[in-house]
Amino acid sequence: MIQVNDKYFESYLSEETISNRVSVLADNINNDYKNKNVVFIVILNGAFMFASDLIKKITIPCEVSFVKLSSYHGMQTTGRVDEVIGLNTSITGKDVVIIEDIVDTGITIGKVKKLLQSSQPASLSICTLLFKPEAFHGDIIPEIIGFSIPNDFVVGYGLDYDEKGRNLPCIYKIKAS
Ligand code: IMP
Ligand code: MG
User: Fold this and answer.
1) Ligand 1, atom nearest to 108 Cα
2) Catalytic: 104?
């Protein structure tokens, strides 16, 4: 058990479990996107660790770009995405794969997708490490999912609880109190 800020968390997905699954996702992307013009757009901060491990296993030519949005505070999603900042590459006519840490309600990713769609990419898919089907109420289900998980708050491997816990090498879930 570990403590992050005022909450206790227990081990949930080990480094090995994550690494094995990330390899499978990378293999799928290498197959599905060969002969395409793939651009990975990594959503900071949460997806940094996942993206790093995933992209190391990508063997096809690709571009990598990073964007930032602000929509989340503490343990409640505010459901607001004001803008996508930092995209310094043209995605028009390219095959975009958005890399996200977690899709919870789906509000964030829905808005990001809409904003990027206006640049007219050839295709646009979402690759998320984690997906919470019970919390999801969007209309854009991620095409590439690492793990579907219960509706429990998780930290580690890039995911934070009030900005702490991102450095943990594996994923922990909140301990029922
Ligand atoms: P959504 O708009 O509700 O899908 O929320 C997506 C964002 O909320 C993610 O990019 C995360 O930053 C954050 N988030 C949602 N659930 C969790 C969680 O269990 N742990 C940490 N961050 C979370
Ligand atoms: Mg995030």
Assistant:
1) 2
2) yes
